[in-house]
Structure formats: structure tokens, C-alpha cells
Amino acid sequence: MLVLFTDTDTDITPKAAKEYGYHLISMPYSIDGVTTYPYEDFEEFDAHAFYDQLRGGVLPKTSAISAESYKKYFEPHFKNGDDILYVHFSRAMTATFDAMDAAVKELKEKYPERSFYTIDTKGITLGSLNIVFEVGDLYKAGKTVDEILEWAKTEVDKFAVYFFADDLKFFKASGRVSGLAGTMGTLLGIRPIIFMNSEGKMVNIGKEKGRTKALTRLISFVEELGEDIDKHRVLVGHSDAPALADEAVRLLKEKFGNDLKIEIFDVNPTAGSHCGPSTVGISFHAKHR
């Protein structure tokens, strides 16, 4: 039997994970030396409370999980005779997958007949979530692992995500976005426009003054790059900015029709530790990223 895994950095909730048959790996964050594992240390994510902490000056830290942790997630399934397909956030953004590789190598020596497959979404949060859902659809439709992996070869790079950051101090602290100009700052009302490239890295590709113009810029990318928009989900993610997320939905439906398959999601706290509050993004099926 093939067992699906994904991680909390993809924004998936336990409810959605259960619906698609995913087992969930929790990616931690720490505040004042206290480490929290999403959906293991709490059942529901209180996005407003978390991002209000960040607005109040808290700067969380994130860390990789250990090889031992990966073994605890995977070994019961290998022992049960199952193979694993792990659909995960971008390998290019973290060293945690080095620990995963070490764990899987050790487990494969113990269970040589078992297979372990991965799909690198080359994204994080809603960009990954779109792919996680698509893979889940294929899995529920009875597709084989080979068919799913073949789909991923071309389709992973066709799920784009564009977003803007509201407070640069979080991205500057994380160092995970290339091309951020030091002169950009929230005092000037400047919002950098960022996307996930085909290498799975976050890149700043422009700036807009004010949230309204930044949101309009995001919509323009959907218009320019969108492909088969009506046949795929359009996901809007936000870090405690519900009014902006609702406005994004309104603008998207205005452009593409009310039948657009669109959903809104909270950005998970681990990824949100890097982007900060009031970030808004859109993920959609595209000609290319």
C-alpha cells in the first residue's frame, strides 16, 4: 500500500490531511526558547493570536527536525509493509531534508523491500498546498505512484505563487528572500512583490507602494501567467489579513468569473515566522512560474 505524507509548512490542516489520506509531519517554531510543533502541541491554529504576537515585537525562530524524528514518522509504515510518498515544501529552503535523507537511508537498510518517494513542491505555504491537493486528488482517483510522479515532472513547475510582504523585518531576519533592497521599508509603505522560482527559492521581483497596489499587482500576474484557471484551484493565503484576502477573492472573481474554484487559507505559523503578519499571496495554475 502507498501511504501519503506532507508537512505543516504546506498550510494543510489535519482535517484536510485526513480527507486526502495524508499523514502530517510537524515543522516547529520557537518563541522565547519554547518550541511548538503545529497540530501536535495544539489542535487548531489561532492565526490572529499568533500574528498579533508578531505585531507586538515577537520574532520567532524555526529549526530543522532530526533524523530520529523522521524515523518516528516513517518507520511504522515501513514496518507495516507500506511504501511512502512524501509531498513536501521546498528542499532549497531548509537543511531539514538532509536529516530526512539520513533517516530514510537507515530505514531502507532495515526495510530494503520498501520504497520511499518524494515530490518537491519547490514552494511553501499555499504554493505547496495547491500541489498537495492535486496529488491528493490523483491518489483518491486511484492513480499509481508512477503516474503521480510522472504528473509531477511537468505540473509542479506550473503552480505559481506570488505574494507581498507587509513588514520586511521578518524576511530580513530570515534571509530567505533574494533581491530585497535595503532601502525598502514599511515606513515608506513599500511592499516587495515576491514569487517562488523554479528552483524553489523566494525571489523579490518588484515593489509597490501600499497594499492596494500590491494586491492589484498580484492579480496582474494571474492574468498574465494563468493557464486553465477554471480547471484548477486558486488559493489565497494570508497571515491574519482577512479583509485583504477577501478583496483578493473579489478581484479574482471579477476577472475570471464567480465559478472560479477559489479558497482562502491561513499561512501556517512556521512559515509565518519568516513572512510576518498581513502578508497576502495567490497560488494558481500557470504557463510557468
Word description of this protein:
This protein is an alpha/beta fold. It contains ten helices and 14 strands. The chain has helices at 14-20, 47-55, 67-79, 96-110, 126-140, 145-155, 168-174, 211-225, 242-256, 269-275, and strands at 2-7, 22-25, 29-31, 34-36, 61-62, 83-88, 116-120, 159-164, 177-178, 190-196, 202-209, 234-238, 262-266, 280-285. The strands form three sheets. A seven-stranded mixed β-sheet has the order 9-11-10-8-14-12-13, with helices on both faces. A four-stranded parallel β-sheet has the order 2-1-6-7, with helices on both faces. A three-stranded antiparallel β-sheet has the order 4-3-5, with helices on one face. Helix 3 (67-79) packs parallel to helix 4 (96-110), helix 5 (126-140) packs antiparallel against helix 6 and helix 8 packs parallel to helix 9 (242-256). The longest helix has 15 residues, at 96-110. The radius of gyration is 19 Å and the shape is globular. The mean pLDDT is 94.
Name some characteristics of this structure.
single chain; 289 residues; alpha/beta; 7-stranded mixed beta sheet; 4-stranded parallel beta sheet; 14 strands; 39% helix; globular
